[in-house]
Amino acid sequence: MKPHTILLIEDNEQNRYLATFLLEQHGFKVVAAPDGPQGIETATQLRPDLILLDIQLPTMDGYAVARALRQIQPLREIPIVAVTSYAMVGDREKCLAAGCSGYIEKPINPDTFVAEIGKFLPPPASQGAP
Ligand code: MN
User: pTM for the complete prediction?
Assistant: First the structure.
């Protein structure tokens, strides 16, 4: 079975390392980008199965990245999961309004992180079924 490819857009190296480690441990292929513009370019070329999007990014925040991704026709259906340390009321709504499919809070919990992301992916059984 072809592994799911996840694009991780995250500027913090330690967060990138942890998320990549956890996802690869569960059989995902991970491609990382350190900022929004590079993430958008990689998404366009790669067409990942899911995009994990940090909200606090330099130059272009995650909301702007999500809006830009949703403007790119072939990427419109790809699940985008926002990762944010903002604990403010209304943030979840802001993520969803920008085009994200869901939301995970930082710091990520290594015990539940992969399962939370898995909820946004199609079940493996539905892949390649006749
Ligand atoms: Mn960040």
Answer: 0.91
Query: Distance (Å, rounded) from C-alpha 49 to C-alpha 110?
Result: 21
Q: How far is CA 115 from the centre of its chain?
A: 14
- Rounded to the nearest angstrom, the distance between the alpha carbon of 47 and the centre of ligand 1 is 22
How many residues are recorded in the chain? 130
**Helix, strand or coil, per DSSP, at residue 18:** helix
How do residues 69-112 score in pLDDT, each as one tens digit?
A: 999 999 999 999 999 875 666 788 899 999 999 999 888 999 99
Dist. CA 25 → ligand 1 center (Å):
23
The torsion of the CA quartet 6, 82, 80, 126, rounded to 10 degrees, works out to: 70
